Amino acid sequence: PRTIEGMERAYEIKIEAVDGIEGSEADVRVIWLDRDNGVDYITCKLNDEEDVKFVFDTGAATTLISGEMATKLQLLRTGITRHCSNADGVSSPHQEMLIGSLQIGTFMLRNVRCTVQDTPGEHFDPLLGQNVLGHFDYAYSKGDRTLTLKHSIKE
User: Does residue 26 sit in helix, strand or coil?
Assistant: First the structure.
């Protein structure tokens, strides 16, 4: 992965609809979730090329992907190392990288920061974190396996 020079300036996530719908209807989308062994997954397209199934995890602060995926997608390093804790409370360092685009349903987010867990030989499912989900008001229906997203404009 390449490193972004001059990361002292912040990259802001930008959100747009990719289906051409405008006005208030463009702000709300219903996303169908996949379920496997009781875990719900949401499929997102990364960098306009790779469909990735993310665990829908409201407890994850940041989006987490593998080092292998970061290399495959040629993500840019921000030069920042973050210490992340797992559900067991174990903390470890992770490199922060930048996903150029992440499409969730018909919403396109650009400049999405993610953390990369680069542990060779260890498989884990990527997590979709609050750094993405926090840009939306959302309603999760476990029974219907749906996620309703409403673009939340923050001042």
Answer: helix
Residue pointed to by tokens 């609809």: 17
CA distances from 21 to 16, 27, 29, 99, 109 (A): 10, 9, 11, 24, 16
Pairing label, strands 76-85, 2-3:
parallel
Which residue shows structure tokens 């709300």?
A: 28
Q: What is the pLDDT of residues 51-107, one digit of tens each?
A: 999 999 888 889 999 988 999 999 988 888 777 766 667 677 788 999 999 999 888
Q: Name every residue whose Cβ is closer than 8 Å to that of residue 124 and which is 6 or more positions away in sequence.
A: 64, 66, 117
| Dihedral over alpha carbons 12, 94, 84, 60 (to 10 degrees) | 50
